[in-house]
Model the fold of this input.
Amino acid sequence: MIKNTSRFLIAGLIIAWLVDFFFFNKPFGIAFSIWIFIAAGCLFLVSWLEKIRPHWLSILLTGITIAISTASFIRQEPFTLVVSALASLALLILITITFRNGNWPFFRLLDYIIQGLKWLVMIFSRGWPLIFQGQKKTKTENNTDSSEPVPQKNKTLWPVLRGLLLALPIILVLAALLAGADPIFEQGLNKFLEIFRIENLAEYVFRTSNILFMAYLFIGVLVQAIYPAKQDPRPHPNQPSIKKFLGSMETSIVFGSINLLFAAFLVIQFRYFFGGEANISETGFTYSEYARRGFGELITVAVLSLIIYYLFHSITRLESNNQKRRFSGLSILIFLQVLVMLVSSFQRLVLYENAYGFSRLRTYSHLFLPWLAVLIVFVIILEILQRQGHLAFTILAVAAGFVVTSIAFNIDGFIARQNIQRATLSEQEGYALDFYYISELSSDAVPVILDGFRTTTSPTRDLLGADLACRWHTMQNQETRPWQSFNLSFSRAKNLLEQNQKLWLQYPVEQDENGFQNFVMIDSETYYCAWADLFMD
Done:
């Protein structure tokens, strides 16, 4: 039974108001990590006040969630920010679902789906009785003797309102006199009064409505987390989620057919791919064309193999030891062949990068492929140990590992380093650094670009200098970022550009005759700063 409803109402309003305060019309930054920390802190504080003890696994998951959310002020590369933010929010939801029982490591895949849907329904329904009926219920519970009068709390309301009405004209007169006495105070007062301008009314109504709606949801989240409507028992991962209906022979035929198909594909792979460039050229494909055509498809095959395995394991009746061994043997053989395909896929990726350089998508794939291989290895181990029910937790752990790797790796810095090295080594072959792609990279790449500028020679050095000059010009003309948008990567890049600004004087940034586009001239060649202007925000 809830001991004090006001705790939930205040905590929900604080979390909702902070969403507006931290994120409305503000660039993404440190505020997200702070919000995650405060939201989790409110949950644990209300739980402590209500004398409800969270499970230690929920505390552990909270630490992981806060750590992942720090990408909001460590990095500026878009993919890293998106996956870390989504992962933080997903883990925060998982904390509220299993706050008291810590069941999240024992969930099967279907449990995650069912519990997520239940949670979504409950957060809409749990807040209503607390907000609109909680006071009435509290009075009924606290007044067991019907003859005892119910305290009339609204008697305090009218004196407060009368006091505010009396204070308002007095404050206005005194504030006007003080404003006339001090120009600095007058300036601050005018800024404060701007919030009451009639043209801002629509925005205030919109923001207030959003805050109230979010507060309603967050109140429901807090109530459901601390006082769940139903305490679900801990699931047994190795028990089937649904009733199995498919025979072992049918599954064996499907898995056997997949193995035959994969084996035929690998035979061709060894002949034309692992055999070397000469064998591929016989087919009429260049090395890069062959790599580009197959890379995405091989990753898709690997992911589909995992889905097919999970689906058939969930619906296939394995009643005898022979049936279990046959299923395990065929599924393990599938995954062993998939691992070989992943090696092939990784080599295709390397070929493509050698031909065209590094990009964000290729670097994402570079990070994703090893983690996908790790997941498949763990699936094989689970199948051997007959612990297939832990697949959901394995996927969760591997996904978290991929997100953490993305944060720690500095994707844009890696891309800049590899492309600068490639341009330096390939200048004699006519390869030039792609100025506009380097300009697309976030401030994560600025330290690497600066190092490249100091160590390379022309023409690569001039292109890097032009890029840094454009970035410095853009930063100088940007509005001051609010503290909620503080980003360590952006701050470091700005400091480096400021400390070395004398180096950019040889690459003056000019404007076209219309004053819309900035550019740098190098050997009569025009390099526009438009890309840098866009991606330094």
Remarks:
- The chain is about 70% helix and 0% strand.
- The two ends are 49 Å apart (CA to CA).
- The CA atoms of residues 7 and 49 lie 8 Å apart.
